[in-house]
């Protein structure tokens, strides 16, 4: 999402597990949504990048067998 709450499409995302070292990449869809599947319980750092925006970063705790919805805000570069 941008700071106005609008979804940002085609954002590149990378994920890294703090303890497991798991690494995955994906891209948001045309509606700004993304999904990482088959993750073990761990804390994960997600980095979001898109040209024209400052990098967004969020740490998320994932529990075994649970889904989690998160939002990452992206700020336009000035």
Structure in words:
With 78 residues, the protein is an all-beta fold. The chain has a single domain, classed as Carboxypeptidase-like, regulatory domain (Immunoglobulin-like, Sandwich), CATH 2.60.40. 0% of the residues lie in helices and 33% in strands. The protein has no helices and four strands. Strands 2-1-3-4 form a four-stranded antiparallel sheet, with no helix packed on it. The chain starts with 11 loop residues before the first strand and ends in a 16-residue tail after the last strand. The model has no long low-confidence stretch (mean pLDDT 94).
Secondary structure: elements and pairs:
Blueprint: E1 12-17, E2 23-27, E3 42-49, E4 56-62
Antiparallel strand pairs: 1-2, 1-3, 3-4
Share of β-strand residues = 25-35%
Tell me the number of structural domains: 1
Overall geometry comes to elongated
Question: Major sheet: order of its strands?
Answer: 2-1-3-4
Largest beta-sheet details: 4 strands, antiparallel
| CATH-assigned homologous superfamily | Carboxypeptidase-like, regulatory domain
Helix content: under 10%
The CATH class designation is Mainly Beta
Mean pLDDT: 94
Tell me the radius of gyration.
13 Å
Distance between the termini: 17 Å
Structural class category: mainly beta
Instruction: Say what the CATH topology is.
Output: Immunoglobulin-like
